[in-house]
Every structure is written in C-alpha cells, then in structure tokens.
Amino acid sequence: MALPGELWAELPAEKRIFCSVLLFSWAVYLWEAFLAHRQRRVYRTTTHVPRELGQIMDSETFEKSRLYQLDKSTFSFWSGLYSEVEGTMILLYGGIPFLWNLSGQISGRAGFGPEYEIVQSLVFLLLATLFSAVTGLPWSLYNTFVIEEKHGFNQQTLGFFFKDAIKKFIVTQCILLPVTSLLLYIIKIGGDYFFIYAWLFTLVVSLVLVTIYADYIAPLFDKFIPLPEGELKQQIETMAKSIDFPLTKVYVVEGSKRSSHSNAYFYGFFKNKRIVLFDTLLEDYSALNKEPAGGEDGENEETKSKTKNKKQGCKNEEVLAVLGHELGHWKLGHTVKNIIISQMNSFLCFFLFAVLIGRKELFAAFGFYDTQPTLIGLMIIFQFIFSPYNEVLSFCLTVLSRRFEFQADAFAKELGKAKDLYSALIKLNKDNLGFPVSDWIFSMWHYSHPPLLERLQALKDAKQD
After folding, report:
1. 170, 304, 370, 408: which has the highest count of C-beta atoms within 10 A?
2. DSSP reduced 3-state for 316
3. How far is 14 from 34, CA to CA, in rounded Å?
4. What is the mean pLDDT of residues 96-107?
C-alpha cells in the first residue's frame, strides 16, 4: 500500500502546486479563525471593567465597546468564511481561465485578436474587479448599515453610499488600467533585466500616488478645507517649526459625513509637507458635536446628522499631542524606513517573478496549458506562490509597527505632551469604541499598534515624573 508521501510524489508538478496553494490558503484561514475565536471568547467573558481600567473607562463605554467589537468579530468570521469558500470555488472550477477566455472573446469582438495580450489583460482586470465589487457589495452594505449604524458610527445614506462606491470604482479603474498596461508593456520589452525596470516603474508610480493623493484624489470623495487661522493652527505651526518639520499647509477633512471614526496623517515629500486632520478628531470642529441646522439641503440630503456619540474629539492640547506622535514618525525616520522596506520587498518579488515566470507548470496548475499571459503570471506568483512569504513578512511588519508606535509615543513625551497624549488616547479609544482587553496571541499577530494599556503605562511613568 502506497504511503501518502509516495502518492504525493507521484502527482504531476502542477497538481502538487495547486494542492499546496489550496492547502496553505485554508491553513491560513483556519489559523485566523482560531485567533478570532480566542478574541471573541475575550469579548464574551470580559463583561466587567477590569480593575486596572477602572479610572480609564466607565462601565457604559466598556459595555458599548465590547458589544461593538463582538459584532465586528462575528461579521468578520462569516465574511471571511465566504471569501475563503468563494476563492476555493474559483480555483477548483477554473474561474481564472474562464474569465481570461471571456476577456479574449470580448476583446476579439472589439477587433483585438490574441496578439493584443495587453488589451485582453485590461478587460480581464476590469471584469475581475467588477466581480469583486459586486460580490463584496452585500457585505459592505451590512457592515455599514447594520453594524456601523447600530453602534452609532455610520453617517451615510444609502444614496450617498452607492454614489461613493461607483465613484471609487471609476477612480480605481482610471488609475489601475493605465498603470497595469504600462507595467505589462515594460515586462514585455524589458529583456533579461525587465524586473529592474518594472520595479523602478512601480516605485515611481507609488511615489507619484502618495504625492497627489491628498491633493487630487481624496478631495473627489471628501471636502478638504484649510484649518482656519487661530490658536490651534499657530500651535501646530510652532510645534512643526521646533522640530524642523517643513509644514506648508494644514487641512481639515469632513470625515464626519461618512463616519464618526477619527484620524490624522501627514503627507508630502521634501520641503512640502501637509497635515490632514479629520473633523471628528477636533472637538471644536466636529459636526457631530453640533446641533443639525434645520432646512439645509445639498450635502445634508446625502448624509445624516446623528448625535449618538455626543461631544467627541479632542481638545487643542490633545490634538497637538496626537500630532506630536505623528510627527515623531517623521522625525525618527519611520516613514523613510517603511518606504525602504517596501521597495526592497518589491524588488525581491520582481526578481523572483523573473526567475519563475518561465515555469510552465505554474500556469498549468491554474488551468493555463497553452498560453502563459504575463498578467496571469503576476497574479499566480504574487498572490499564490508568494503567500507563505507574504504571511511571514506581514507578521514581521506588524511587530515593527508596534515598535515604531512606542517610539513615536516616546517622542511626543519628549515634547512635553505625555499628559495630553495620555488623555487623547483614552478619548480616541472611547470615541472609536476600542476594546482595551485582548487575547495575547491575537494581539501579537494582528495589532499594528500596541494595546491601549501598554501605551498608557509607558506614558504614565513620564506623566508622574
């Protein structure tokens, strides 16, 4: 009787590749499901505020955050299961070669034969993203209008949601299709060293997108206005100048028209840095803290004014402390380090792609026996073959991110912002209904930011000093 190892060795190479990809995909899913189960158990059993959190969270907020996170975790379980089953069905029933052949038929009817591989690739990409958008729509609707609505975060109407989704899809295609066509063309004509040119091209594209995103892309979806002259703006400019941050503009984005979650970030290269603050972060600017004006039309017809999360946001001193943390990422070189790591990874992946693209068994494993389209090769190698490497890299970057967050907190502390950052973190956790208790394995694997208690403890020492 043949042993399992012998049976495995007797399988054709393409079958072994296909089975390995499928088995690893389910192994990752089961690992994630196991971690999520552990965390849901924490949500279900931790029904009272732990002693160490007694002066940080009241019992009402604690219960709200527990129920919110429990609903999110349950939703994540079912959406994750659906996604895994859908992906498995697509692989088992030849969904990728089917869509490729359908793309060939469509491009053929438009007068582009098989020799126009790039045209067929763009049709394939359009159909694939359309399929993903349609199948993901029910889950997105449920998440927005059931879970986020139930817990007081959703500010959108159904009309605004669909208008936003269509706009996002169109903008994505306007960027994705030209970039992909140029990338495929570079790979086709690049010769033996095409991976270097492909890497350089993606580097330039990523830098351009980072540069133009907040000025030209984000305003298509949200309204950006300059932070009005006043005490807060003067304090931000003074703090930026004290650490040599080349600040040119400060914007407030009306994030409150879609969600009451808050955020802040900076962007730009060299001597042209800008800071963006969500209005939900600012206690004095958040529309959620104001009574809705009666009789207004326009945008108020697309968004709903809610008052479930009354008086949210941070005071000016706390906003400065949050920005001190964010500017710490810049001053300590975290942004540059992340770009370097990302580009080193990108170069390695393109190099390995160049090594593997000629292996016909990789294409045969996914149903491509007669053709080896470049776009399909990119998908197979980057998405499936590299998946074990991607999982390891993701975990390492999560660990590094937590280290960077502690360092940025310490930088804000050096600016004398420990007390204000301490209170800001508590407020932001409350406003976003973050649950401060977590399973240690789940936290280690998923949290790119340290748990709240750990951050507060590090700041508390300085606060007492």
Report:
1. 408
2. helix
3. 30
4. 96
Residue 460, pLDDT score: 79
Average pLDDT, stretch 373-390? Answer: 95
Q: What percentage of the chain carries pLDDT values higher than 90?
A: 63
CB atoms within 10 A of CB 265: 13
Residue 374 in this model has a pLDDT that exceeds 50: yes
d(CA 207, CA 211): 6
**Residue 383, C-beta contacts closer than 8 angstroms, at least 6 positions apart:** none
Catalytic residue among 148, 302, 326, 405: 326
Burial 182-212 (b: 16+ CB within 10 A, else e): ebbebbeeeeeebbbbbbebbeeeeeeeeee
**Token output for 154:** 């959703």
User: How far is residue 62's CA from residue 365's CA, in Å, rounded to a whole number?
Assistant: 50
CA dist., res. 216 & res. 49, Å (int): 45
Asked if pLDDT for residue 415 goes beyond 80, the answer is yes
pTM: 0.86
Separation between Cα atoms, residue 200 and residue 351, nearest integer Å: 12
| Cα→Cα distances 344→31, 213, 335, 339, 415, Å | 28, 23, 14, 9, 33
Model confidence band, residue 309 (pLDDT cutoffs 50, 70, 90): very low
**431 CA to centre of own chain:** 20
Q: How does DSSP classify residue 266? A: E
What pLDDT sits at residue 55?
A: 76
Alpha-carbon distances of 273 from 210, 240, 241, rounded to whole Å: 12, 10, 12
Residue 406 to residues 160, 243, 276, 431: CA-CA distances in angstroms? 38, 19, 22, 21
C-alpha atoms less than 13 angstroms from C-alpha of 419 in its C-beta half-sphere: 5
The percent helix, strand, coil of the chain (3-state, each to 5) is 70, 5, 25
- Compute the distance between CA of residue 385 and CA of residue 362 in angstroms, rounded to an integer: 9
CA 440 – CA 361 distance, rounded (Å): 41
Sequential DSSP letters for 371-399: ---HHHHHHIIIIIITHHHHHHHHHHHHH
Catalytic residue status for 231: no
Tell me whether residue 223 is exposed, middle or buried, using C-beta atoms within 10 angstroms of its C-beta: 0 to 12, 13 to 18, 19 or more: middle
